[in-house]
Amino acid sequence: MGKFVRKPFRVAGLGEGLRMKKAVDLSLRHARDEITGVDIDKTEYSKYLKKKGLKEKPRNLDVRGRTDAISYLKAQRPESLDHVYAHFLLQHLSFAKRQELLQGAFNALRKGGRFLTVEEMHYSGQLQAELKSQGFEVFAKRLTPEQVFELGTDNAQMNARAYWDRQQLLDQIGQMPRRQKEAFFRERGLRTVEDLKKIDVVEVREFIKARIMEREGENPSPEARKAIDNILAGVSERYSERPFVAIIAKKSRK
Ligand SMILES: C[S@@+](CC[C@H](N)C(=O)[O-])C[C@H]1O[C@@H](n2cnc3c(N)ncnc32)[C@H](O)[C@@H]1O
Q1: Average of pLDDT values for 229-249?
Q2: Interval between CA 166 and ligand 1 midpoint (Å)
Q3: How confident is the model at residue 2 (pLDDT cuts 50, 70, 90)?
Q4: Are residues 96 and 200 in the same domain?
Q5: Displacement of CA 216 from its chain's centroid (Å)
Q6: Same domain, yes or no: 40 and 164
Q7: Helix H or strand E segment including 98
Q8: Does residue 4 fall inside a structural domain?
Q9: Best substitution site from 40, 66, 68, 158 to test ligand 1's pocket, by max atoms within 8 Å of Cβ?
């Protein structure tokens, strides 16, 4: 009896980043599957390959630099992809573009296929709602910085390090001799580490709001306004022990 050989999986990584690290790693680890890395910017994936001691692009890796993820998805045959992931990409898109991308992913995925995204925790509720409204079944798992670091992409590791740097600073303040600590807080008009965290959350919220408003333009739609409020409401999660989230969205088999 002939051995059962499954069809290669078609996987797309959207907003892969300069080195396309995850797509390269996946193509090496899963030689029988077809992996495509997409980014709107240029790519220097060959530098990452070289670092790994490889001279040639794996045959199962398709690299699409200077390619918009939405156009890429629209160009795919319906139900032709098995898996799509987009780590730390969705937070860079306007509300309208995000809907286009998620709809494109839903159409391009086969039944039973999955869309996976890892983001900072404050995007969790809003992104889950947006994925559900496109027809996905959605599950979410909160992640520690250690788990996000393990993911291995450049931004995952940068975000995990930023968290550890913040924690280290708080630890250093905590360990200061009493007088030094009092002087530290007095100079800043504060009393406790909690006050310091609150101020940071307010500043970060303002920063994120400004970035979002730049993308949304003068007159965001009512849905976009609601999305902005939802996202900003969760910024204090940056000090929780699980400040990131993995959202797994499945296209039902039915
Ligand atoms: C924060 S980085 C994340 C990179 C990578 N996923 C990681 O985790 O390290 C976001 C990436 O999305 C890309 N990007 C932004 N808008 C895009 C779009 N419409 N289509 C494809 N890529 C896009 C940017 O060029 C950037 O490389």
Answers
A1: 97
A2: 24
A3: low
A4: no
A5: 19
A6: no
A7: helix 95-108
A8: no
A9: 40
Question: At residue 250, what is the residue type?
Answer: K
Average pLDDT over residues 159-174: 95
Q: Domain for residue 19, yes or no?
A: yes
| Number of domain units in the chain | 2
Name residue 11's amino acid: V
**Residue of the nearest CA to atom 17 in ligand 1?**
40
Q: Token pair of 225, please?
A: 């306004």
Which tens digits make up the pLDDT trace of 202-228?
A: 999 999 999 999 999 989 999 999 999
75 and 20 within one domain: yes
Q: Could you report the per-residue pLDDT of 174-193, keeping only the tens digit for each?
A: 999 999 999 999 999 999 99
Query: Distance (Å, rounded) from C-alpha 172 to C-alpha 33?
Result: 47
Measured from the Cα of 41, ligand 1's closest atom is 25
Q: Does ligand 1 lie within 6 Å of residue 41's CB atom?
A: yes
Residue to substitute in 73, 89, 211 for testing ligand 1 pocket (most ligand atoms within 8 angstroms of CB)? 89
- Residue 2 inside a domain? The answer is no
- Average pLDDT of the chain to the nearest whole number: 96
> Look-up: residue for tokens 């070289």?
50
Could you tell me the residue range of the domain that residue 192 belongs to? 158-238
Q: Domain with 146 in it: what CATH number?
A: 3.40.50.150
Residue 62 CA to chain centroid, in angstroms?
Answer: 21
